[in-house]
Write a structure and sequence with these properties.
The chain is an alpha/beta fold. Among the domains are: about 160 residues, Resolvase, N-terminal catalytic domain (Rossmann fold, 3-Layer(aba) Sandwich); about 100 residues, Alpha-Beta Complex (Hect, E3 ligase catalytic domain fold). It has 21 helices and 25 strands. The strands form eight sheets. A four-stranded parallel sheet has the order 2-1-5-6, sandwiched between helices. A four-stranded mixed sheet has the order 11-17-18-19. Helix 7 runs antiparallel to helix 8, helix 7 crosses helix 10 and helix 16 runs antiparallel to helix 17.
């Protein structure tokens, strides 16, 4: 019999499992004992047992409970590649060997994960053999009951362990010890050890702190570090590195306790890189810059995280040029030799004659965010009327499930009948639960009030006339646009619905600018439409190169054309 070994170790707070190596060693011993041929070995490091295997993305996206849980996690690992590889390599009759069942999965109440994994095992006719605990045969109803109860016990034990662990770590932190070590630049330690200082990076840190106190502009400090110590950083020294240094109290021998108060660090005693007095001066300068009137003027930056360099695909960061907000490639800013990345620079607020900035130029596209939100709201309200019906059906199926389990335990129905009946009701139960959770979430949102007051229409004219408040503009931008790639001669706009749109840039007064546009409502002549659903818009962008008029976007409520500049 062929066996595939699977091991998993969490990120640290979820459980206290053995190392990957030890788990694999235990599984190998079990395979030897049971005379199983090891077919392959897979593992996942720093991965939660509550995440889906890779290849199950379509199931995960519809699992409301799972996505709610994941949104509250710090981890970026939404899927387990190692477990996905296990299922991709399984043949009928194979077995999966794990150290204990929690390595395979941990259940989340009302999540579809457990049933999904069991379903995949059943389809492949695969059993799970464990080194510790009870083996799992998904076609055996008794096994399923036992594993469900065992998972609940494990979760209770985990919660107790986690509570004790958190209390212990908090006590260490309040005593001046970093319980999980440090990731501060130039410093390293393991748990209770004294902190080790990298001498080369220490020079960088001292230089940065002194230059900040001397009021050297931050961009000059970044350039200086890249010139003198650039080889110490994997790619380059960025502004994020600079702010990390400024904000880190360990460099002057202090740390933050659980109440966010500064206390002396026992592990850094005698290894301080700068004085507390110098650090306080640096922090004051940082705070003064953060709250300066000039900076407050540009507090709202809607395109941050949306713009990408057309050359390297990297993120673009902000700067202010003659009172106007600009975005430039981060890589091009720190590597002055990269001329192509520097060409992606773009103004967001400029407006000159027949040209305009990016913020105003893409405003018509944001209508789609309002319309999509409106249509989703209408669909959900239809579902809301059926909520009681769905809940009654869910309760009925759950009672049927319970009665069937009792009947089987009392030997009133055969295992064959039990299995066939379970297969029929399991999927409907999962779908109903997912739908009910989604409708309940909508019920407590403000979407109903928003639609009933028809507030969507109220923002239309402000949006197209570039008078919309920055906060509202940012909200619509994130809902309508996935990302924007900035090139020297054009920008590519990628919408959330999969539509792509290109705007050409033209040289005007030594700056690359975007064209202006004209808009009109096609659904009515003089009177404003009363409802957003009645709107039909035409937008025309004007270019100075004499191009013929053509349709570039054709959507149900929005048509976009481009043509030559009007006389």
């Amino acid at each position: 019999m062929q066996a595939i070994i699977y091991a998993r170790q969490s990120s640290g707070n979820e459980d206290h499992s053995l190392s990957i190596e030890q788990q694999i060693s235990n599984c190998k011993e079990l395979c030897k004992e049971k005379k199983l041929t090891i077919k392959d070995i897979f593992s996942d490091y720093n991965s939660s047992g509550r995440t889906y295997p890779s290849g199950s993305e379509k199931v995960a996206v519809n699992d409301i409970t799972f996505n709610k849980w994941f949104s509250n996690q710090n981890s970026k690992k939404k899927f387990r590649k190692g477990l996905g590889d296990v299922f991709s390599q399984l043949d009928r009759g194979d077995v999966i060997v794990v150290d204990d069942l929690t390595r395979l999965y941990r259940s989340i109440g009302y999540s579809m994960l457990e049933n999904h994994i069991k379903q995949m095992l059943s389809e492949k006719n695969v059993r799970v053999i464990v080194c510790k605990g009870i083996n799992l045969d998904v076609d055996n109803f008794a096994d399923n009951l036992i594993t469900t109860m065992q998972n609940q016990i494990n979760d209770n034990q985990l919660a107790i362990q986690k509570k004790k662990s958190v209390a212990s770590m908090n006590a260490l932190r309040d005593s001046g010890i970093l319980p999980t070590g440090t990731k501060a630049l130039g410093l390293s330690c393991q748990r209770h050890e004294q902190i080790r200082v990298d001498p080369e990076l220490a020079e960088v840190i001292k230089c940065v702190m002194n230059d900040v106190v001397e009021r050297m502009p931050f961009n000059q400090i970044i350039t200086k570090v890249n010139k003198n110590w650039g080889h110490l950083f994997p790619k380059a020294f960025y502004s994020s590195n600079l702010y990390h240094i400024i904000d880190q109290p360990l460099y002057c021998g202090y740390m933050r306790n659980t109440r966010d108060e500064l206390i002396p660090s026992k592990q850094m005693r005698g290894r301080e890189l700068i004085s507390r007095q110098l650090w306080d001066k640096v922090r004051k300068i940082r705070e003064d810059r953060r709250h300066s009137p000039r900076r407050a003027q540009f507090r709202i930056l809607p395109f941050t995280g949306v713009l990408r360099c057309g050359n390297c695909g990297g993120k673009m960061v902000t700067s202010v040029d003659k009172g106007q907000i600009c975005y430039h490639c981060h890589r091009g800013a720190v590597n002055l030799q990269d001329k192509e990345c520097q060409k992606s620079r773009i103004n967001t607020t400029a407006a000159k004659d027949n040209f305009t900035g990016l913020k105003a130029a893409i405003a018509p596209l944001l209508i789609l965010a309002q319309y999509n939100d409106f249509t989703k709201s209408l669909q959900m309200e239809k579902e809301l009327d059926r909520l009681a019906e769905y809940e009654e059906e869910y309760i009925r199926l759950e009672k049927k499930h319970e009665k069937l389990a009792v009947a089987f335990m009392e030997n009133k129905v055969s295992q064959n009948i039990m299995e066939k009946t379970l297969q029929k009701i399991r999927t409907p139960i999962e779908k109903l639960l997912s739908k009910i959770i989604k409708i309940r979430d909508y019920k407590v949102s403000d979407a109903i009030i928003k639609r009933e007051a028809d507030k969507y229409w109220g923002d239309f004219e402000s949006l197209l006339n570039d008078n919309l408040p920055d906060g509202k503009y940012e909200e619509l931008l994130k809902d309508a646009v996935d990302h924007i790639k900035c090139h020297y001669d054009h920008v590519d706009i990628f919408l959330k619905d999969g539509t792509n749109f290109r705007l050409d840039r033209y040289m005007h007064k030594n700056r690359r600018q975007l064209p202006r546009f004209r808009w009109r409502n096609l659904s009515t002549s003089d009177e404003k439409p009363k409802k957003i659903k009645d709107c039909k818009w035409e937008v025309v962008y004007f270019y100075p190169d004499g191009r013929e008029k053509k349709l570039v976007i054709d959507l149900p409520i929005l048509k976009i054309y481009e043509t030559k500049v009007q006389n």
